[in-house]
């Protein structure tokens, strides 16, 4: 009789079937098969928070099919993903199929390669109920919060809103940051650099201050500049040393999401989708169907001995001996992290990104290259820099006072891991790093003084990468929750993405204010982080999941009761967002409203003035055909494009985003043709003017190597 293996996805099933052969049947559960009902709370609060699981709507046929397959099989293996969620799916499947929880039915593998899969099937174990209970606790907590606060928000603000342990905290972080920015008062300060020269090699030295605010205004800066202009400069002291830069650790989920966001401008959700595809299996020429990376939901930096041996062998064969450390690098996983899985790494280092590029989509290649290079570099030798720091006296004959300037720089002595993987530096940093050979007592030639006015800037708005970093640092959520959280807070219209950063909406600010007043613990960073610790304790078998729920729910229910009483009969209005668009009927500034079909512009003078019009996002660019505004639009498929506001009378449209600049040749709008390469073209096709940025030497060298 055959053996049955149940996994989550068809892609994973296809890859595993190839490795196990004809004695095994492999079917996919398509994710969860049971869950709490959508139409009710689904938790029996009166009877120790017992969850009421039901088969997910639309999956009855699939469940019956799996049961039918199971009847004719000698053995059943549950090979769902190796985490809490995967363990819970296996538990639900075991319940439906009548399997004993202590039987050896659970199969675990961190990567989908032949050795890992075959070895996993050879060594099954019983279900880990601590993992299952940790997942149940999270699900019940989220249901209690979501299904009891959300209706409250519907009654007090508007329908369609939701609350959650992680999403509400994420929204509050963005709202609080916006308040910091609005309250920020810029503070003026000045820096004074001098350009000096030795043996025809010039460099910058910086006026030394204890605090960057010591030079507060132009008058103070001018006094220093006047003294420094044409003064005598002599090297007081030189300190030379050696600095080592170690490579970054291999990726975990959060660092992969952050790096893909920063370097590739890839949304977190898309990053995880691509990583899932690479994990589940891709058809590679000469190799066949293979999982290219290890499991992508992990916060562990552990790497198997086999993988370390393989990557060290690769480095030894492809680089000079100096690039291979004497012993493998070991990275310490932060406390509280789940160490069940390895870090994210390629399953076969020999499958280099260039070797398999033709088998991957463009996005798959980008993510795989990021993972592959980060992992290989993590086991390479450190970069070695020769550093120099000089103190320079600035004096004038006949004057007792003097000023101190400092200059520092470095020269690469040995590139180490940076031959493969290096974070970029801006031009100013590169210029500051070049110093001539300086020695104590050297007289230096003065070239110019460069005073510069600065103002302190507010903290930056959250990008996806920064938001994930902040959530992770504060212990909010887990790697698997970041992508859905970011998606949810945008779908609920609590925040909007402008460029690469998030801004709160009026709705997000009002909802957060209400949550802060009525459910302060739910949006409290420390409280939410502590709840994550409780979930970890359940997984470790140190606490009962129902006792954790009880400890949370009793004060929460009182909080909910008090909020209902305090705000009885109150309905909060979301402030209208005023625009620059003027109502042509009465002259008032139109505001943004939300209706059943989405957002639109309306006159605030209703009911006296009932003027409404579609909401148009002006790009600030002018149509090259008729002189109208170029506005942002969406196609039937939801894809963004740019067209003339006078459509259909004017047929101008483009997929390329206007840059806000004008063509120096004809005055039409310039369009960003390629956001990655920064190529620009003129919107006027008859003009033909283009801008192709010059490649930096490193980029030219890399492009040449790739062509080879």
Describe the protein in words:
This protein is an alpha+beta fold. It contains 19 helices and 29 strands. It has a six-stranded antiparallel barrel with strand order 8-9-14-13-10-15. α8 crosses α12 (362-378). It starts with a strand and ends with a helix. Mean pLDDT is 90; it is low at 424-432, 697-701 and 703-708.
A few lines on this structure:
The chain has a six-stranded antiparallel barrel. The C terminus is likely disordered.
CA-based gyration radius: 31 Å
Spans with pLDDT under 50 lasting ≥5 residues?
424-432, 697-701, 703-708
- Distance from first to last alpha carbon: 53 Å
Share of helical residues: 25-40%
Query: Could you say which overall geometry the principal axes of the C-alpha atoms support?
Result: globular
* Oligomer kind: single chain
Give the helix tally: 19
Query: Class by helix and strand content?
Result: alpha+beta
């Amino acid at each position: 009789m055959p053996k049955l293996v149940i996994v989550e996805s068809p892609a994973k099933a296809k890859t595993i079937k190839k490795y196990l052969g004809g004695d095994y049947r492999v079917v996919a559960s398509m994710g969860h098969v049971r869950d709490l009902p959508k139409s009710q709370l689904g938790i029996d609060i009166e009877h120790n928070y017992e969850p009421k699981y039901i088969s997910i709507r639309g999956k009855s046929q699939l469940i019956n099919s799996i049961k039918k397959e199971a009847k004719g099989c000698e053995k059943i293996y549950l090979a769902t993903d190796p985490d809490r969620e995967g363990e819970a799916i296996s538990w639900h499947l075991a319940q439906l199929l009548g399997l004993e929880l202590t039987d050896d039915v659970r199969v675990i593998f961190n990567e989908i390669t032949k050795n890992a899969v075959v070895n996993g099937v050879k060594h099954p174990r019983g279900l880990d109920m601590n993992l299952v209970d940790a997942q149940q606790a999270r699900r019940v907590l989220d249901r209690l919060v979501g299904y009891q606060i959300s209706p409250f928000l519907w009654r007090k603000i508007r329908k369609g809103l939701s609350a959650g342990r992680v999403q509400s905290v994420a929204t509050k972080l963005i709202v609080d940051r916006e308040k910091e920015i609005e309250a920020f008062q810029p503070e003026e300060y000045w820096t004074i650099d001098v350009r000096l020269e030795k043996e025809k090699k010039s460099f910058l030295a910086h006026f030394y201050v204890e605090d960057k605010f010591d030079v507060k205004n132009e008058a103070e800066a001018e006094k220093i500049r006047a003294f420094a202009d044409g003064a005598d400069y002599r090297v007081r002291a030189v300190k030379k040393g050696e600095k080592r830069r170690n490579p970054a650790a291999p990726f975990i989920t959060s660092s992969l999401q952050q790096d893909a966001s920063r370097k590739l401008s890839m949304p977190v959700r898309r990053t995880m989708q691509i990583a899932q595809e690479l994990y589940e299996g891709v058809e590679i020429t000469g190799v066949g169907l293979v999982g290219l990376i290890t499991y992508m939901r992990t916060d562990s930096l552990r790497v198997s001995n086999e993988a370390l041996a393989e990557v060290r062998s690769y480095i030894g064969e492809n680089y000079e001996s100096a690039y291979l450390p004497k012993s493998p690098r070991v990275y310490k996983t932060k406390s509280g992290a789940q160490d069940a899985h390895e870090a994210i790494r390629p399953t076969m280092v020999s499958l280099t990104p260039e070797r398999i590029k033709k088998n991957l989509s463009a996005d798959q290649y980008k993510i795989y290259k990021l993972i592959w290079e980060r992992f290989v570099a993590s086991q390479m030798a450190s970069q070695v820099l020769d550093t120099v720091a000089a103190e320079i006296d600035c004096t004038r004959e006949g004057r007792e006072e003097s000023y101190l300037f400092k200059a520092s720089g470095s020269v690469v002595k040995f590139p180490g891991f940076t031959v493969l993987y290096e974070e970029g530096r801006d031009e100013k940093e590169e210029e500051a790093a070049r110093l001539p050979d300086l020695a104590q007592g050297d007289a230096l030639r003065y070239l110019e003084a460069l005073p510069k006015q600065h103002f302190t800037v507010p903290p930056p708005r959250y990008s996806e990468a920064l938001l994930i970093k902040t959530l992770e640092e504060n212990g909010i959520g887990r790697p698997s929750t970041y992508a859905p959280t970011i998606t949810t807070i945008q779908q609920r219209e609590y925040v909007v993405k402008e460029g690469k950063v998030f801004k709160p909406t009026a709705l997000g600010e009002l909802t957060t204010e209400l949550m802060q007043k009525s459910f302060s613990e739910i949006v409290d960073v420390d409280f939410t982080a502590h709840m994550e610790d409780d979930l970890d304790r359940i997984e470790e078998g140190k606490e009962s999941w129902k006792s954790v729920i009880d400890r949370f729910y009793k004060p929460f229910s009182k909080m909910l009761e008090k909020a209902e009483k305090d705000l009885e009969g109150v309905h909060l209005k979301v402030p209208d967002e005023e625009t620059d668009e003027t109502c042509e009927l009465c002259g008032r500034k139109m505001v943004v409203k939300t209706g059943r079909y989405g957002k639109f512009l309306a006159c605030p003078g209703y009911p006296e003035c009932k003027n409404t019009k579609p909401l148009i996002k002006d790009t600030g660019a002018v149509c090259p055909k008729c002189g109208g505004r170029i506005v942002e639009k969406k196609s039937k498929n939801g894809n963004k494009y740019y067209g003339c506001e006078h459509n259909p009378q004017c047929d101008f449209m483009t997929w390329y985003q206007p840059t806000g600049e004008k063509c120096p040749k004809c005055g039409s709008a310039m369009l960003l043709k390629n956001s990655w390469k920064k190529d620009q073209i003129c919107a006027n096709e008859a003009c033909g003017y283009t801008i192709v940025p010059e490649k930096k030497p490193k980029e030219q060298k890399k492009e040449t190597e790739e062509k080879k």
